[in-house]
Write a structure and sequence with these properties.
This protein is α/β, with parallel strands linked by helices. It folds into three domains: about 30 residues; about 240 residues, Rossmann fold (3-Layer(aba) Sandwich), CATH 3.40.50; about 200 residues, Nucleotidyltransferase, domain 5, CATH 3.30.420.240. Helices cover about 35% and strands about 20% of the residues. The chain is built from 19 helices and 21 strands. β10 and β11 form a beta hairpin. α4 crosses α5. The longest helix is centred in the C-terminal third of the chain and has 35 residues. The protein starts with a helix and ends with a helix.
């Protein structure tokens, strides 16, 4: 129910009932410095969700909700913006509610509130900044403009959402729909409310329960406890409550709507209407346009095309650590979903080689990332098993050029990424079908490029993987695997040493057998000649 519907219902009541409700409201909020607006903001205020996402449209009272909760409901609050200068708006909103800046230390962005509650504002511009908040206990952890943060920042810091005295703890995120593919993790995280393809959609404000199994969120029934990996754990509840400018009468009265209505169409749909399914504007240096990837994902089917043999298998190997080993197969233009394994499940080359062979069909070739050191042992094991395997080393040289011949490439990685862009281009009749995986979408759209002078003229340089890690908050393993799979027939791939040795040995055996056969034939001819 939005604010207009609430007010209409209130006005429809008999005068006596309206007056009684007004009296009860005043009695119930006596002494409060902040009272939420009726409608979505009040629903968010009283939500029982452990993790609430509130927002959608611009001007719906998102920032006010966060500071209001900190002032009235929580003893120790920490509110994040991605960049610390952005907390200026939060500071002004607290000052507006309190009517003073007394108790605020602007040097460390800490506020001692009138009722004794503590509030701090913080920035997290770099991925590694999350480690500064390890062990920091807060009963309210709030995230203003959540789509500007990475998923790993959000998950890591929230681990210390607790109160030693046993009070109510909650996580509240606010924001508008993502404006880049890197913010799409939010749609996946609150998928029952935001993903139109979710098999079991949730209503606004409805609680859904989640626990983590082997690093993946799994929806379960109720808090539990649930038996997961040998231990009993409680699930965490999530919900999403949408809001729009119409739910914020004070801001609505300022004429803010006319400013939103003047925005370009795609921004207007996101910010005015809170639409989560509008195409984001790509970064001008983004290698693969978002619409290319989404079009390829829209073509995908659950099964590979009939009558088409498996073309290749690609693997990005992780051994231990937080990254995952990703294995993906390809049937010409059709790319499979990923088989993902925790690093602890793939501790060595023989294990990964066995998983790859399990996926193989039709004696297809295998491509393994050999640039980081982990893939070498896997390639050796595959070579000894007589698999047609190749190592992908992104730093290797490239003699290729872009489709129109204008630019060369700095290295093999730049070539493979750019040529996959060319393969996906719908203007050239692309048939490629990619699995509808949000992480893959974010990974492929995270590649950035520059044009630099090279030995043979200007060349395309795809920026290093570390840039993508900083942007995504994780390693782009799925994107790397798909790129390798697309490049499975490139000439720059190298056979592992063991495979080349095995191939040379086979050639020697064939040569020896051929020579021996020729010698035997010659001897038989001589014997036949004597008998004649």
């Amino acid at each position: 129910m939005n604010l207009n519907e609430v007010l209409a219902a209130f006005k429809a009541l008999p005068q006596e009932e309206r007056e009684e409700l007004e009296r009860l409201a005043l009695d119930g909020t006596k002494g409060q410095l902040f009272v939420p607006n009726p409608g979505p903001q009040t629903e968010a205020w009283f939500s029982e969700a452990d993790e609430l996402f509130y927002g959608g449209g611009a001007g719906g009272g998102k920032t006010t909700l966060l500071v209001g909760l900190a002032i009235e409901r929580h003893k120790d609050s920490l509110i994040f913006r991605r960049q610390i200068p952005q907390v200026d708006g939060l500071e002004k909103e607290v000052e507006r509610i309190l009517g003073t800046r007394d108790g605020y230390n602007s040097q460390v962005h800490k506020w001692r509130l009138p009722n004794g509650n503590r509030l701090q504002f913080a920035g997290m511009p770099n991925e590694s900044d999350k480690e500064k908040y390890q062990g920091r206990q807060n009963d309210l952890k709030a995230w203003d403009e959540i789509t500007q943060f990475t998923e790993t920042q959000f998950r890591y810091v929230n681990a210390w959402n607790r109160d030693a005295s046993g009070g109510r703890c909650r996580i509240v995120a606010t924001g508008n729909p993502p404006t880049s593919a890197q913010g799409m993790w939010v749609v996946k995280y609150w998928a029952p409310w935001l993903d139109p393809s979710h098999p079991s959609p949730a209503l606004p404000g409805e609680l859904r329960w989640f626990t983590t199994v082997d690093g993946e969120d799994i929806e379960v029934e109720g808090r539990g406890p649930h038996f997961v990996n040998g231990e009993w754990v409680d699930a965490v509840s999530r919900t999403f409550i949408p809001s729009r400018l119409e739910d914020n009468p004070d801001l609505m009265a300022t004429g803010y709507a006319s400013r939103l209505n003047a925005l370009p169409k795609e921004l207007r749909e996101r910010l005015r209407n809170g639409a989560f399914d509008v195409e984001a504007e790509d970064d001008p240096w983004q290698v693969i346009p978002t619409r290319f990837v989404k079009a390829a994902q829209a073509r995908w089917t659950d099964r590979p095309p009939e009558g088409v043999s498996m073309t290749a298998v690609a693997a990005d190997v992780a051994q231990g650590g937080s990254d995952k080993t990703q294995i993906q197969t390809r049937y010409d233009w059709w790319y499979s979903r990923f088989s993902s394994y925790r690093g602890s499940e793939t501790p060595d080359g023989p294990t990964v080689a066995g998983l790859i062979i399990k996926e193989m069909r039709d004696r297809c070739r295998v491509v393994v990332d050999a640039g980081g050191g982990y893939g070498g042992d896997t390639l050796t094991q595959l070579a000894h098993a007589d698999v047609d395997c190749y190592g992908f080393k992104g730093g290797s040289g490239s003699a290729s050029r872009t489709r129109e011949g204008m630019y060369g490439f700095k290295n093999l990685r730049s070539q493979a990424v750019w040529q996959f862009r060319e393969q996906l281009d719908p203007d050239y009749g692309s048939q490629i079908a990619l699995p509808p995986d949000p992480e893959l979408l974010a990974d492929l759209c995270a590649f950035r490029f520059e044009i630099r002078p090279g030995g043979g003229g200007e060349e395309i340089v795809v920026l290093p993987k570390d840039n993508m890690k900083e942007m995504l908050g994780r390693s782009p393993d799925k994107g790397d695997t798909t790129i390798m799979l697309s490049a499975s027939k490139l000439g720059g791939l190298k056979r592992p040493k063991a495979a080349q040795e095995r191939r040379d040995e086979k050639r020697r055996q064939v040569t020896a057998q051929t020579s021996q056969g020729a010698l035997k034939a010659k001897l038989r001819g001589k014997r036949n000649g004597k008998s004649v």
